[in-house]
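Open question from group meeting: does this chain pack into something compact, or does most of it stay loose? Before anyone orders reagents, we agreed to write out a predicted structure and look at it together. Recording both the input and the output here so the notebook holds the full record.
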Amino acid sequence: MWDFISGCLTKNRDSMLFDGKNSVTYAELLLEAEKNGETLKKLVPSKAKCAILCEKGLNAAVAILSCWCAGLVVVPMSKNYGERHCESIVALTDPDVVIHDKNEPFEITNRKCVSKPEEILCDVAAIMCTSGTTGTPKGAMITEQGLTKNIENIAAYFDIQKGDTIMIARPLYHCAVLTGEFLVSLYRGLDVGFFDGAYDPVSLIKFMGEHNVTVFCGTPTLLSHIAVCMKRSISLHPLKGEGYRRSGGGVPTIAVSGECLSKKAAANIRSAFADARIYSVYGLTEAAPRVSWLPPEHFDAYPESVGVPLNDTYVRITDIDSDGNGKIQVKSPSVMKGYYNDAAATKRALVDGWLDTGDIGHMDGNGFLYIASRADDMIIKAGMNIYPKEIENAIEGLDCIESSIAYGVRGDDGEIVAVDVVLRSTSRGIGKKELMKMFAGVLPPYQMPSVVNIVGEHRKNASGKIIRGREQS
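Structure tokens returned:
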């Protein structure tokens, strides 16, 4: 993996990585990664596991590349998902060494002595953790070949180049960000800017303008919010600042991923970026992650499609229902090796060389792929994976709650969280506003519901199973 990365850094020595305070050229990054890599080599052998928990994106990037220089398997984490989730990842992967940035730039902590690394990890570059509806992490083992192949195949269609500047506003914990934004940018020699602030469309827009950002990626929710802010105040439009230097007249390149894109959200994004090249893309952690992409020239005509498979990637639809939708399965060299320490889950996901994505969809006559829904109950809000069971467990710890059901509601600008709650008989006078205050005390901000329904009982189907969600008008 390091041969591939070091080649990218050497080829584009004068390109830069930066955040709000610091910057480093690719040449300096190469030296820093090699120095840190030598330190890591003295602590653990090649293919040992290194968990990375850095709050700053630039620090996380340096840490990941340093690990690969030392031949280690990286296990990215993010504090955005909460302490409990990080603890679950540590429990699952049992890392040999940890890198964090409590004290800048970062510290390396050796957790245990390792004499012989695990054979299963011999060709693995990263264990990228994902979860099911219970929130229990699953570690997708992404091979070095699979990761490099995905980078090359994204670069084959993604019209970015040296001289562009990309803004990365989400943690490298996400495989879509690590591969589809950061690593493909290193491959192409872009300047890479890390935005570490809290979710705030106005601050993101200002960052884009100040740093002449020409490439940015995000969820439909995030991009729709940015579009609304720009339409409200033309002075906020990042393309209006003097000195905007993208050859081609200030036309940005945008990639939309992470949630199903509605026609209205697509129209909002287009209205703010009339001349932009807009890609709608689809992937999942287990595929390292990119599976398909919609060429920009088709974005306005087919905004709800995620396009055609990447090079070396095959997609098939099985178990097709009466509406023409079925299970989406993928075969490519980028598909994971399996789930770390979970043979049962691996067997369910990988069948005869095909990855069962857990998503439902169809392909049209043009060979364009459409995602109808997720097979599980996971909610994706502004790119954050939210697991209903975690919300339910937290709020049912409140004395006033008898039971609850959490689910996603798809709006025009993306998914939001909704909950149906049944109150205890002694708490029937409590209203929605009071409940929201209570929820804020037990839930992290990204899990907070936008809709609360107080119900007498939960709906059930004919077999008595509780129905998650409600019909939306």
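Observations to bring back to the group:
Residues 232 and 265 are 16 Å apart (CA to CA).
The longest strand covers residues 401-411.
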